[in-house]
């Protein structure tokens, strides 16, 4: 049964009607439209801070240096910035050390909704109204992964074949060495007559 959190106001309707969210919501980087995550990994959202927290994200990486907030709602908390892997835009924060008030956000992915765009899967939205770049990048990434896995498999087969060939070459070299040593042995001369022994003179 849908709850109040599963509903959002319809646009330009003065909040008189509500639209039920019937499918997953996909979050994209607002700059390059790369897919970042979806509502299946939703943890919580905060209207006051304009953030949404997800358990898992895609196509992102964290900043190498940890920062500590000096002001704002997360003052005193230490975090890594979450960056879009495609365009390097800052999307949010991943807290690694928190005060008790933000303890539930630690080791998750708290994203700034102003840095995101979103759409609901299965809605009747024209292609001209939103870009397919993010979805196409995911498909391209999956194809590249499959190609790399296939190349690894082919390389393994080639390596095994080279090992077999190397073993056969070693066996051939050993056989040739044996034959060479056999041809160098002196052949006994069977045609030579035995040396004559001097006869004893009779007195």
TrEMBL record:
Residues 1-20, 177-203 are annotated as: Disordered. GO terms for molecular function: metal ion binding. One of its GO terms (cellular component) is nucleus. It is found in: Chromosome, Centromere; Nucleus. Its main location: nucleus. Residues 1-11 have a biased composition (Basic and acidic residues). Residues 24-121 form the Mis18 domain. It comes from the Eukaryota. One of its GO terms (biological process) is cell division. Keywords: Cell cycle, Cell division, Centromere, Chromosome, Metal-binding, Mitosis, Nucleus, Zinc. This is Mis18 domain-containing protein.
